[in-house]
DNA sequence: CCACCATGAAGAAACGATTCAGTGAATCGA
DNA sequence: TCGATTCACTGAATCGTTTCTTCATGGTGG
């Protein structure tokens, strides 16, 4: 038995296809008697009818599909959460998420977006895998777009990024709250928004607590495990080492743990550590488990999808284009009061 | 200027739409003079014409779209690589990948697949996030399907899983090659295919080297960092501890590192360690960097997509439904000769 | 010289919805 | 009572392709 068509429903209900369409789509401004409406509903139910999305798309020029374009999906475990957040919101609204990754190449990006446009996606989520400022592909000009984990260099596309400043502020606040006054910052040396944002939060937290900022307590290295190791060593070998280190990310914190172990600092007895990212492969697995700030990728993905759907369905919702997503502190066991 | 239609091309070339369609789709069995063909090609080029995928789909009942259904996309960084592999192959063949995740709920899975079928996907990639044996949703019966990282309990659907046995064999072979004779195995206690496969490889490797299997050298715990810690402790506190430990995965290896450090075993001087998975957040970040066996997620995703496309496009390719993907050894710094 | 056949191309019918432009019948105001 | 609305609904056009069927043309064998 092939799937029923709208005409089958119409025939069974004894009406024209127009009326079936009108009833099933709840077209407003068109009246149908309650009795007819019910007959159609019953017929559709009985046949298990639902309209063919392709035929519908051909007519309406809308596909209930959104494109998720990302630069590199691979190397970061974050990607999955962002995609999942977007996908779940889309699915619940009856939209499908089509996934494409471009490898970050500009040329490929343009081509990709054009291809998606040919496929008539209703909107595009343009994601990068860590917080950056980007030039958006020009092909995106003609389609509803929301940027994920990125802010546009020009124009004012809706976008969502993590609130690095606020996250760093609470991280350092946590250390200050535990009694620390000498707090190091092992940061990323690349000039990325996350680094400057977190540095801003760090200095702001110190300032709020009346602690003078000491440039010597900021150690910039590559934002990976060896970088964290080197940064932490530099800080801990200072004549007067910090009693706590705020690390740019969990990987640097992992390196920091090693430096601390080598130099005989026990965590958290001699040294408190806070990370950033809440990588679930690292933060809970370190010993002691790492207190860190979570990067809300799932929430950002969900927020972006919701925003895009609102755009597509012409919800008004006038507000600032950019949204800062709060980064919650995840308390574990790497923070304690300063020694002595 | 709206996008050109096929009739615009036909008009410009001075032919009927039929001929345009025939030429542009390279329909065989239909002859068109070289001159006419060229005129059409030129016209299409000039207008920048490409056919509307939706209208085409309505007619042909094919969408050049494949569904990627997964249980949990979130928690594992593996997911991304598998998806990426599949996506890139699909994209290169002109197919789009639509992503849905079901959270593993059977009910939701069935519904999801039915929804995808309504959307006329040409095929489905059904993926789980770690090697398992699964009962496939019945709705998949009517669509071309390839299983990813899973083997079906019944039926003989095409599927691809990592070659756990072979991977463990080479891992343990590496240790034996370095001179070790007393090799512990810190394994996962859950009865998953990966655990039994890797145990099989472990025993096979010993056997091949003429080393008697000692049940006491196999320590089963949860397959996470604390589990690895406990397993390694048990092994290292044996009256005659092993000189090398093969760990079920990188997380267990991470726990193993801690146990070794606590008990005064230096890696690799006193103890060699090999992991499994090659998680890029862990393996290269440990100190010393972990020698491990890579789980070829990208390759599995790509293989599955390729296989599915062949199925869709009716390539014959008769072969065994299941494919074992080799797991290459990644040499780093955690293996050395046994002490003394 | 005619019937026949291959050739090259075109007209029109799908595909399955949505929606425009009507169409009888009922209702209404005057 | 009559023209004008309103009501409830419908036939047919439309979206942009692919593909089935038809058709004119000209060459060929008998």
Automatic annotation (TrEMBL), chains A, B:
<protein>
    <submittedName>
        <fullName>LacI family DNA-binding transcriptional regulator</fullName>
    </submittedName>
</protein>
<feature type="domain" description="HTH lacI-type">
    <location>
        <begin position="4"/>
        <end position="60"/>
    </location>
</feature>
<dbReference type="InterPro" id="IPR046335">
    <property type="entry name" value="LacI/GalR-like_sensor"/>
</dbReference>
<dbReference type="Pfam" id="PF13377">
    <property type="entry name" value="Peripla_BP_3"/>
</dbReference>
<dbReference type="GO" id="GO:0003677">
    <property type="term" value="F:DNA binding"/>
</dbReference>
<keyword id="KW-0238">DNA-binding</keyword>
<dbReference type="InterPro" id="IPR000843">
    <property type="entry name" value="HTH_LacI"/>
</dbReference>
<keyword id="KW-0805">Transcription regulation</keyword>
<dbReference type="InterPro" id="IPR010982">
    <property type="entry name" value="Lambda_DNA-bd_dom_sf"/>
</dbReference>
<dbReference type="InterPro" id="IPR028082">
    <property type="entry name" value="Peripla_BP_I"/>
</dbReference>
<keyword id="KW-0804">Transcription</keyword>
<keyword id="KW-0678">Repressor</keyword>
<feature type="region of interest" description="Disordered">
    <location>
        <begin position="320"/>
        <end position="340"/>
    </location>
</feature>
<dbReference type="Pfam" id="PF00356">
    <property type="entry name" value="LacI"/>
</dbReference>
């Amino acid at each position: 038995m092939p799937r029923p068509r709208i005409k089958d429903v119409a025939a069974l209900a004894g009406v024209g296809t127009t009326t079936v369409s009108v009833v099933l789509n709840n077209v407003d401004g068109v009246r149908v008697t309650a009795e007819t409406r019910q007959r159609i509903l019953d017929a559709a139910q009985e046949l298990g009818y639902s309209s063919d999305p392709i035929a519908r798309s051909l007519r309406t020029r809308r596909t209930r599909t959104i494109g998720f374009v990302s630069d590199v999906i691979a190397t970061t475990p974050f990607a999955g959460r962002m995609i999942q957040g977007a996908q779940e919101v889309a699915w619940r609204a009856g939209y499908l998420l089509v996934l494409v990754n471009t490898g970050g190449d500009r040329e490929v990006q343009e081509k990709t977006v054009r291809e998606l446009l040919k496929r008539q996606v209703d909107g595009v989520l343009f994601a990068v895998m860590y917080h950056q400022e980007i030039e958006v592909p020009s092909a995106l000009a003609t389609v509803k777009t929301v940027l994920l984990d990125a802010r546009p260099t020009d124009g004012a596309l809706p976008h969502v990024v993590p609130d690095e400043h606020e996250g760093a502020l609470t991280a350092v606040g946590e250390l200050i709250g535990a009694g620390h006054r000498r707090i190091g910052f092992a940061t990323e040396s690349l000039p990325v928004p996350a680094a400057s944002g977190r540095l801003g939060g760090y200095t702001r937290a110190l300032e709020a607590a009346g602690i003078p900022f000491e440039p010597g307590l900021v150690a910039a290295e590559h934002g990976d495990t060896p970088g964290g190791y080197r940064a932490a060593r530099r800080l801990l070998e200072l004549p007067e080492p910090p009693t706590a280190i705020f690390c740019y990310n969990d990987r640097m914190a992992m390196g920091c743990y090693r430096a601390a172990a080598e130099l005989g600092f026990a965590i958290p007895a001699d040294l408190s550590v806070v990370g950033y990212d809440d990588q679930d492969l690292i933060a809970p697995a370190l010993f002691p488990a790492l207190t860190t700030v979570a990067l809300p990728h799932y929430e950002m993905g969900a927020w972006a999808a919701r925003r895009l759907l609102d755009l597509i369905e012409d919800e008004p919702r006038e507000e600032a284009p950019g949204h800062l997503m709060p980064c919650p502190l995840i308390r574990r066991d790497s923070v304690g009061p300063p020694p002595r």
